Amino acid sequence: MAKSNLGQDPDSTAAVAVLKRAVELDAESRYQQALVCYQEGIDMLLQVLKGTKDASKRCAFRQKISDYMDRAENIKKYLDQEKEDGKYHKQIKIEENATGFSYETLFKEYLHETVTEVWLYNFLRFCEMLIKKPCKVRTIHLLTSTDEGLGNAQQSSGLEEIKQSLRSHGVLLEVNYSSSIHDREIRLGRFSLGYCDLDLRPCHETTVDIFHNKHTKKL
């Protein structure tokens, strides 16, 4: 896509920066992130267009918006087809001490009315989020490691409590254990930012992989 030449006012400059990032992500085949940036940049340009009086600038804005909308629509169609074919894979890389990566931030775009089953690898706030969302999840599969020593009894007791709580919401919890999973956690004081709002909680460096299948497959 051609480089933008949309003026130097702050709002326009911000929109150009976001759209430039969209084009970069697009070129790297990071289509999901590119789509988000295209959509955000288009919204910003539409706001700039509303406040623009000059006819030639308005024409330029409209053409750019049209071009970016066409590309965003093509990416959306491609991603929808990938999901339909069961090939969709999104990878999110989280840097050490990064913030803004709560469960809701990571997964909310996938929790719509068609979701009925979830496989996951680590836990409780994720369950709380699922219960509040419009998806119709009826089964949650948890794959986790076994705590050692006295922690094993506490783990079993805690998971049983969660099972009972989920059952009251009409959700079945199935638990399986693996010796190859390594749990990672950040301990925070009660009065530290991020104790309640996970978007503010510093993260360990990690990678989140999200796969989309049309039909849930048993492992």
UniProtKB/TrEMBL annotation:
Gene Ontology CC annotation, any one: late endosome membrane
Alphabetical UniProt keywords: Cell cycle, Cell division, Endosome, Membrane, Transport
CDD domains according to UniProt: MIT_1 (cd02683)
Keyword Membrane: yes
SMART domains per record: MIT (SM00745)
Residue ranges annotated for the MIT domain, each copy included: 8-86
Topology relative to the membrane: Peripheral membrane protein
Keyword Membrane on entry: yes
SUPFAM superfamilies per record: MIT domain
Domain of life: Eukaryota
Record's subcellular location: Late endosome membrane; Midbody
Annotated Pfam families: MIT, MIT_C
Subunit structure: Homodimer. Interacts (via MIT domain) with CHMP1A, CHMP1B, CHMP2A and IST1.
Name of the protein in its database record: MIT domain-containing protein 1
Organism: Myodes glareolus (Bank vole)
